[in-house]
Amino acid sequence: MARKHQKSFDIFSSFSNYLPGWKGLTVLTLLLLAGACLGSLATLILGKFLTPGELMDYQILIVYPLQFIPAMLYASGKSHRNEGFDTAGVPLDDGRFSPIGGLWLALMAAVATIACALVTEPVVELLPDMPESIKNMMEMLTGGPLWVALLSTAVFAPIFEEWLCRGMILRGMLKKYSPTVAIIISAAFFAAIHLNPWQAIPAFVLGCLFGLVYYKTGSLKLTMLMHCANNAFSILLTRIPGAQDKEYIYELFSDKVCYGFVYAACLALVIYFATRLIKTEFTK
Fold this sequence. Notes:
Blueprint: H1 2-7, H2 22-46, H3 52-58, H4 60-82, H5 102-119, H6 121-125, H7 132-142, H8 146-173, H9 179-192, H10 197-217, H11 220-238, H12 256-279
């Protein structure tokens, strides 16, 4: 068993013996809120040493990881206490990539993720205009130096959010419910932590895709890659000259017919990828 854990993502190997149910999900949510309070306290402290501009640009690098520390400490402690009762455990990352292969599966997953994000655009567009308060919050996350935005959204977010939503919640719910129900629960939680419908709708759809990948392959690294691809694509798109003021990808197309073909291709790609995942039995 020790050798199996060694193959897993070492950062997360200490959580294998904790499979949270509804009670655990509630506790993790409360600890996530406590972590947000810890992040607010850190912001106040940083404000004593940084200018307002510097605080806006760099606080996310400290505040964001702090949000997850209480939940991770709790989950690690619960896992260590459970070791004597459940020696088998369930690794957070136990990749099964055959018969497709890890490289091809990673490439397919990353492309399908970006396609899936584009497919959700028409639904999000039906929502009313985003309030200024939420726009300002989004600006804080993405409007600073490029390296800060990429580090926080394309590295920190995939690591911490995938640990929580797929590694802890989905893994725990799979022990209690059918895969479909467990995936929907984890995707709904993933949507909820984004705290606004403009992000929650695509987050739910992407969460279902991430959950399907995690259920079939057991690979948390793969869902992190997918999450990273989506967030990095979004950040880099906003830095393209002429695209900074665009809220939706379709606004980049002058020809609606061309956009229609792109949309149809993306939808077909997502359906193909999900169908192939469902039909394939993955092994090590």
